[in-house]
Write a structure and sequence with these properties.
Length: 310
Amino acid sequence: MKVLLADEKHLRHAELLLAAIPSLDVAGSDDPDELRALAAERPIWLGSPERVVELLQAGFAPHWVQSSWAGITPLLAAGLPRNYRLTRAVGIFGQVMAEYMLTYILAHERQLLSRLASQVERQWDARMPSSLAGRRVLVVGAGDIGQSVARFLAPFGVELRGIAREPRALEPFSQVLGMDALAEQAAWADYLINLLPDTPATRDVYDAALFARMQPEALFINAGRGVAVVDADLVASLQAGHLAGAVIDVCREEPLPPAHPFWTAPRLLLTGHSSAPTLPELLVGLFLDNLARFQAGEPLRGEVEFQRGY
């Protein structure tokens, strides 16, 4: 079995793959010409969408591609072939994303950044914080990652609700409602966490009307996709005091241009698309599981329906 590694971590991936299956024929490169030469004879690819796109545009035709990203938007661009099987990275981001959410939710609850500002100004800050117990958390995008985030938050005694494409029962949420309930539930939440994928139905979801429904004490966290947020509306809401703050990990354009208003918006923290790094050990574990399924003709974990977009 010949496998192409089209990712910046290809050397580490090769090491892990060969440790698991010494007979596996794996190869990768950081040189575009060499990568194209390797792609010509390898039907199975493990790699990042940005590098896979370049190979698809060059006319190479894989049988199956395992993306190293949870998001596969670049591979859905018009004009790219769709006559291959595509799987996205699933089941490997839950804990790191939950750790990210806990970091900034606890920092907000404990007023960490304002206390740092007070220290810089040599002002004694003796305000008493609240507790997460009883706080209302809305996870928008209650899929694999969203459910894992909720499990890590549950021991803190928060009330958890989710938003998904369709309502359903899902632990540990008390309720999971459909997208049509988002505005109503946004008004309920103390913390609104966006984890929605990038699809036509999830773009510009967070606009002025929705931010106006949120509580002025609420924190908005976006670690889903930047296109879900109308940037100007978020900035205006923060400037008007309609939100306690925002933590933004993903933006419409990355890196964020120097003139973008997010840089100077009040109470907005940028975290540079760092919420859920891909850990090589977990990615290779997923790939090996899917490789066995692929060889056995079984369903693949995280297989993408191109028409649906995820």
